[in-house]
Design brief:
With 454 residues, the protein is mainly alpha-helical. Helix content is 71%, strand content 0%. It is built from 20 helices and no strands. Helix 4 (57-67) packs antiparallel against helix 5 (71-96), helix 8 (146-154) packs parallel to helix 20 (426-442) and helix 16 crosses helix 18. The protein is globular, with a radius of gyration of 24 Å. The model is unreliable at 1-8 (pLDDT under 50).
Length: 454
């Protein structure tokens, strides 16, 4: 029998090239390259699978930041992912769907988004002392909103929404379990994570992230979504599973010892209770009472109302930062002092100041003035309005209930921004706007023929 030894298959050629590369470069690099190529093949076959990379933001960022330790890729991978997804959308439209034109889905949210973006660009032009700082401040403010447009154009059906949300729950649960493990072993933390005047806690967990505050905010976002799956699971084992994952997230949130996230969870669960089942309020009260009997929790909460905290906050805490911010705002109250100039990552990166406002709304107010904060709040109110539009239009009962959990989590994150710069964290901002896009997509879904099962 004759054997054709010619290499005609692209896969065979690729395997040959990888084999040659393995001789000259470390195995780890070849393995990562092979994994990347495999993922590319998969997402070109099914472009919607690229959305799971968005949901995996926290894990991918951790891989580049801590495992691969590449400062280059850790800074640009999310922008590269966005470009890839847009190209996939174009490919799917033209080649897979045989369309002769691109159909960009727009929504009523486009108007407030456009207004906020245009005003931010206007500030770069007319109100910047250093163009590099202003452009970076602009990037931080508006870049991650573009994930909203990815969601409304790439997410098409209930099955995709369900799979994305279940995958999100699994990822956050894994992070929560690792956070619980950190508490058990008493992971070391920087001393500045605890106020010197406060009774010390054993540790504060941060999982694979860099801050317990952001880990807490992620739990606030995920817990209401998780609870919505408890309500909508028809099988006992699934209810037990989602109940267990909820408990893991609650425990992890507790061990972050992030008071702002605790309060944000109360807000999000109250919203979910009024949307879904008011009996949750009773459960929330019981959990709160039990938590207060845990000494570290009681100490963290009681410290907030102590005279010592007031003095500490006035000397260098949130009240002092509020005073500094309002003093700066008085210099230019209408259009602010300029993007990237106060209370955030850009100001710290460019050595304008290293002071974090610990209040994203204050940061926006000081940098963009009364006009900017009005446009920003209008944008958030438009998100709330879109949720109620979805509640009115969505005919899929299962997705409608999941959206209630998504919305409650988003509102918890909005509240958390009153005491943290949550929206300055790329992961949280990406999740917020991507999930907002899913709320919009859900308004288009018709009642399915198949049963609504998780």
């Amino acid at each position: 029998m004759m054997v054709d030894t010619s290499v005609k298959s692209p896969i065979a050629i690729l395997a040959l090239l990888l084999g040659i590369a393995a001789v000259f470069v470390p195995f780890k690099s070849v393995a990562l390259l092979l994994l990347a190529i495999t993922i590319v093949f998969i997402i070109f076959a099914r472009p919607e699978y690229s959305l799971f990379a968005v949901i995996s933001y926290s894990v991918i960022d951790w891989l580049f930041r801590s495992v691969i330790s590449s400062s280059l890729f850790s800074n640009i991978w999310d922008e590269a992912l966005y470009i890839i997804i847009v190209l996939l959308w174009i490919y799917k439209t033209f080649w897979q769907n045989n369309s002769k034109k691109l159909e960009l889905n727009l929504t009523p949210l486009f108007a407030p988004i456009f207004m906020y973006m245009v005003y931010s660009i206007f500030l770069v032009i007319v109100n910047s002392t250093d163009i590099a700082i202003a452009i970076d401040g602009l990037r931080v403010n508006i870049e991650y909103i573009f994930w909203f447009f990815v969601a409304i154009n790439m997410v098409k059906d209930r099955d995709t929404i369900n799979k994305l949300m279940v995958f999100f729950i699994l990822i956050v649960t894994a992070m929560a379990l690792y956070g619980i493990y950190q508490y058990i072993i008493g992971v070391k933390i920087p001393p500045e994570w605890i106020d010197k005047a406060e009774m010390p806690v054993r540790t504060r967990v941060f999982s694979i992230l860099t801050s317990p505050n952001i880990l807490g905010s992620l739990m606030v976002l995920a817990i209401p979504i998780n609870i919505s799956y408890i309500f909508n699971s028809k099988h006992l084992l699934k209810k037990v599973f989602y109940s267990a994952t909820s408990m893991a997230m609650l425990a992890c949130l507790l061990f972050t010892f992030t008071r702002g996230a605790w309060l944000a969870l109360v807000v999000s669960l109250l919203i979910y209770a009024f949307l879904k089942d008011k009996r949750i309020i009773g459960l929330l009260v019981i959990i709160g009472i039990i938590a207060l009997f845990i000494p570290p929790v009681y100490n963290r909460i009681s410290y907030l109302v102590s005279p010592t905290y007031l003095v500490s906050s006035m000397e260098g805490g949130r009240l002092k930062r509020l005073q500094i911010g309002l003093n700066l705002l008085s210099q230019s109250p209408i259009i602010g002092i300029g993007l990237g100039q106060f209370g955030g990552a850009t100001a710290a990166r460019f050595n304008v100041n290293s002071l974090y406002s610990d209040n994203y709304f204050l940061k926006i107010l000081v940098e963009t003035g009364y006009i900017g904060i009005i446009l920003f709040i209008y944008l958030l109110l438009s998100v709330i309005r879109q949720f109620f539009v979805t509640m009115k239009r969505c005919e899929d009962r299962f997705i409608k209930d999941i959206v209630k959990g998504i919305f409650a989590g988003l509102m918890g994150v909005v509240f958390h921004n009153l005491v943290e710069n949550v929206f300055e964290v790329p992961m949280m901002s990406t999740y917020f706007w991507f999930l907002t896009g899913i709320i919009v997509v859900s308004s288009r879904l018709k009642s399915p023929i198949e049963k609504s099962e998780v």
